[in-house]
Amino acid sequence: MNRLSQETSPYLLQHAHNPVDWYPWGEEALSKAKSENKPILVSIGYSACHWCHVMERECFEKEPIAQVMNEYFVCIKVDREERPDVDAVYMDAVQAMGVRGGWPLNVFLLPDTKPFYGVTYLPPQNWVQLLKSINQAFTNHYGELASSAEGFVENMVASESQKYGLVNGTIHFNTSDADAMFEQIQRHFDTEKGGMDRAPKFMMPSIYKFLLRYFDISQNPEALAQVELSLNRIALGGIYDHVGGGWARYSVDEDWFIPHFEKMLYDNGQLLSIYAEAYSLTQNPLYANRIEQTIHWLRNEMLSKDGGFFSALDADSEGIEGKFYIWTEQELKTALGDDFSWFSKLYRISRHGNWEHGYNHLHLTEPVEYAAKTAGIQAGDFVALYENALAKLAEKRRSKIRPGLDDKILASWNGLLIKGLTDSYRALGHEEIRDLAVATGHFIAEKMTTENRLKHSYKNGVATVTGFLEDYAAVIEGYLGLYQITFEEDWLQNAQALADYTLSNFFDQSEGFFHFTDAYGETLIARKKELFDNVIPASNSMMSHNLYTLGKMLDRDDYLEIADNMLSKMTKLLLADVQWVTNWAALYCQRAVPTAEIAIVGGDADAMRKDFDRFFIPNKIVMGTSTSSTLPLLQNRTEINAKTAIYVCYDKTCQLPVTKVEEALDQLAGV
Fold first, then answer.
1. CATH of segment(s) 177-319+405-592
2. Contact status, residue 88 vs residue 530, Cβ threshold 8 Å
3. Which residues are CB-contacts of 126 (< 8 A; sequence separation ≥ 6)?
4. Could you tell me which InterPro entries the record lists for this protein (predicted)?
5. CB-based contacts of 445: which residues, under 8 Å, 6+ apart?
């Protein structure tokens, strides 16, 4: 048992029984390295990471390998989800070394924490050879290592504006630039299978968000076609859990067939938002189904008794990746009984398996009713038959050994989920979705917030780790969503308080962007700024969206100015290669045309809002009150002839109030 046994992170606890003398990241380990003049090995991963588990089994659990590690290094284990700041710093360093980043990430540092070498997964003999080589280099060529490390640190501490040539300037946001961004990203589309033209295939919610907003301002059918193709294939493919609901992290192939089976809260939260918007636009019943099933899975399997949502489900169970989700032919026969014959045609089940080692995985490429016709399945009540078969498989799966659960609760990922739930409620109108969103908001406000300061992680009734910009950005966005589906002003006030805290403690006035870490947080060798959107949008792009929305809602010109300055500085990157900055591009689309400011006032404000929200109008803010309010957009607004009124405004200038949603939609269409 090593020191990790005292930690709460599931990932660190998984390594508590390793013979490696692991330390958590902290002063004890860093002081030991300095006092003993030993190099540091920082090994970074997360609990749902398949190759992290493989390297643990092959290397970290082996006594002879552990002896080499313990003799030559101070060994530190880091949960990247618990300490994204440490991960970001050393991932940046490793990529600067020319190594393709990924996890497990193993980085070698000098005793002063400066990095000089890094690798991802290595098999046992290569790993041991590397350990010995690094020990020899540290002993015999320290000066060269120190010089190399200094160069990497110089690169790490350089400002983002300096690195990417970002300059201040007033940009006139316009639709022509948005057209250019679309044409550029269009070159990377997979127009046959959806997503981008590369494998493995990751779901990229910020790309779909940009395409939806670009379609809104351009009505370019090619943008909508690519969104629909991508969302259809992601909803039907094996990356979606047909039996239990929810999406896995990514597809290892170009067909969305076999996923890396881990399920992450951040993917599912964001995809709820995207499918909700797409449903509002297209009314495709497949999208509504996937939203409902995924929320059912989240509520049943990922919701803690305290009220927050857990982080992830592991890819592995019983030592096999995906074992919980894949089936032998015999398992399916036993579970389905008389339904096996037609079900096996639908999903192309075979004794040899449609995947590997005799296993079958559920995967479609067209909606199930069409797939049934293609397979020659004749049944008048096919949908009911199909749902009953899936219920049988869900029942059978309850007897399987479940994959590991990462039961820490992260503020950032819960913020993304709150936004996903609020968007889902707006699209579908189911009250239980709103209740779940509100309850999750209360959990963060009450359990993870102290005097407008967020904690990053929650486990066993205790909130720990100073919050990062990603926490503030995602929670603010979630709170803004909660205000707009409840009109409860506390959520707006909470969002404003958190935004003001970030401006005081994260914002770099000289560069115009936010640091990733709090001024009160631990000081690392570099204080990073996150600018590029990935599977999760960059925390700076999220803050730019938030400040724009808050600025509109609260009539705060200072917020609007900061948001516009951030977006203006990023325009160079947006026009150079937009696919890495698509959440910024989504905001650019909003800024290229006026934003609708909707005020709903009167006793039926909530019902009127619910009716209004069914429609796809992404470039809007919605505010309301059933009585009266001092909020800028609601001040001096009243009912009309004792009827709830809708005010459609642009730049604080309102059209004549109307009392029917259809009339308000006509006003919006006329702009």
1. 1.50.10.10
2. yes
3. none
4. 6-hairpin_glycosidase_sf, Ssp411, Ssp411-like_TRX, Thioredoxin-like_sf
5. 494
333 by Cβ neighbours in 10 Å (0-12 / 13-18 / 19+) ranks as: middle
Would you state the pLDDT for residue 652? Answer: 83
Length of the chain: 671
Contacts within 8 Å (CB) and 24+ apart, 66-70: 66/18, 66/19, 66/20, 66/21, 67/19, 68/128, 68/131, 68/132, 69/20, 69/21, 69/41, 69/131, 70/19, 70/20, 70/21
User: Which residue type sits at 107?
Assistant: V
Q: Is 566 helix (H, G, I), strand (E, B) or coil?
A: helix
Find the helix or strand (DSSP H, E) in which 408 lies: none
As a dihedral over the C-alpha atoms of residue 452, residue 458, residue 463, residue 467, rounded to 10 degrees, the angle is: -50
CA distance 354 to 343: 14
CA distance 246 to 293: 7
pLDDT recorded at residue 61: 97
**H or E segment at 624?**
strand 620-625
Q: Exposed, middle or buried, 611 (CB in 10 Å: 0-12/13-18/19+)? A: middle
Q: Alpha helices of 398-467 — where are they, by DSSP H? A: 411-428, 431-447
b/e per residue, 254-293, with b = 16+ CB within 10 A? bbbbbbbbbbbbbbbbbbbbbbbbbbbbeebebbbbbbeb
CA distance 665 to 84: 43
Hey, what amino acid is at 307?
G
**What's the token pair of residue 154?**
């110089």
pLDDT at 159 over 90: no
List beta partners, residue 76.
Answer: 23, 42
Helix axes 265-282, 221-236, angle to 10 degrees: 130
- Concatenated DSSP letters for 234-247? HHHSTTB-TTT--B
Residue 158 has pLDDT above 90, yes or no: no
User: What fold does the segment set 3-158 form as a domain?
Assistant: Glutaredoxin (3.40.30)
Q: C-alpha 543: how far from its chain's center? A: 15
Whether the Cβ atoms of residue 359 and residue 350 lie closer than 8 Å to each other: no
Please give the Cα distance from 247 to 235 (Å, whole number): 8
pLDDT digits (tens, 9 = 90+) for 336-365: 999 999 999 999 999 999 999 999 999 999
**Angle 221-236/205-218 helices, nearest 10 degrees?**
150
The predicted model scores a pTM of: 0.96
**Residue 298 class from Cβ within 10 Å (0-12 exposed, 13-18 middle, 19+ buried)?**
buried
Helix, strand, or coil (residue 609): helix
d(CA 420, CA 30): 40
Contact 461, 306 (CB under 8 A): yes
One fold for both 3-158 and 177-319+405-592? no
What does the pLDDT read at residue 511? Answer: 94
Question: Pick from 621, 606, 593: which is nearest to 477 by CA?
Answer: 621
C-beta separation of 104 from 44 below 8 A: yes
Closest CA to 322 of 389, 241, 267: 241
- DSSP assignment of 92-136 equals HHHHHTTPPP-SSEEEEE-TTS-EEEEES---HHHHHHHHHHHHH
Q: List, for residues 196-210, the tens digit of each pLDDT value.
A: 999 999 999 999 999
Alpha-carbon distance values, 178 to 181, 187, 214, 274, 560 (Å) = 5, 15, 7, 20, 20
Domain residue spans of the chain: 3-158, 177-319+405-592, 325-399, 596-669
